[in-house]
Amino acid sequence: MNTVLRVEGLTKSYGDITVLKGVSFTVGRGEIFGLLGANGAGKSTLLECIEQLRSIDSGTIAVEGRIGVQLQSASLPPNIRAYEVVTLFRKWSKNKAGTGEAEAGEFGLEDLGRKPYKDMSTGQKRRLHLALAVIGSPDILILDEPTSGLDVAGRLSLHSVIRRLKQQGTTILMASHDMAEVESLCDRLIILRDGRIAFSGTAQELTRNAAGLSRIYLQTERSLAGQAFEQCRYEGERQGYSLYSAGNLRDALLELLTTAEQQELAVLDVRIAHATLEQRFMELASAGEGEH
Hints:
Elements: E1 3-14, E2 17-28, E3 32-37, H1 43-50, E4 58-63, E5 67-70, H2 82-92, H3 100-106, H4 122-133, E6 140-144, H5 152-167, E7 171-175, H6 179-185, E8 188-193, E9 196-201, H7 203-211, E10 214-220, E11 233-238, E12 241-246, H8 249-262, E13 267-274, H9 277-285
Parallel strand pairs: 3-7, 3-8, 5-6, 6-7
Antiparallel strand pairs: 1-2, 1-4, 8-9, 10-12, 10-13, 11-12
Family: Belongs to the ABC transporter superfamily.
Domain ABC transporter: 5-219
GO molecular function: ATP binding; ATP hydrolysis activity
């Protein structure tokens, strides 16, 4: 893999609070690389360090080539039009080829006409910000929640633009909360939890991990809460059922039902549910799971 971004042992603190704790990963040329994590996990700080918007305490960040950035929250003068701002950004960039009208057309902005920025929809603004981020032909494009707030049509439209940029050879580092989006677009991903990497791999690997998890909803005459089990973990009470998580469904069921029989408890109902990819992400992003 031809590495274009390498982060090693990155730490960052704000006063007494350490936000990033030895983060290390690499991104290959032409990859769409996902960055996930719950609020407060350190995603924004990590991106800002890569973008050199924040200093780092220790570690290294090595970037091969130029970076383009689409921020999660950005704004432009209320009365400026799409082709005007694209033309302006081209003048600031070393890449002065083309016209504002041409680039607006490439990103599906030609329908805006003379509409000022203040009258654009969220989706139109997102596409405009993406067009501005790629001016200068960056080698690495950083997208922070690129489809946040968009409707289905807007998300699909932006996804097609992201895929086209990948086909053109652009490396994309994308922060997102949308697991379906990550599964559809990303080649690899990391999940941050409390400033550390809790998972690193492909969406398919995360899916396989999710497929191996099961939820057992057990309803008995009296709850087995407080009982220690080897094959499953008690997760609490849910609407009259005791909830257990298990990696090996067969062994967990055998242990639970055997325990109920030994305590002469009638089993009223048993329900099985397999964990979804979203649930697996939530488990990894929250406390209580070892690092990967």
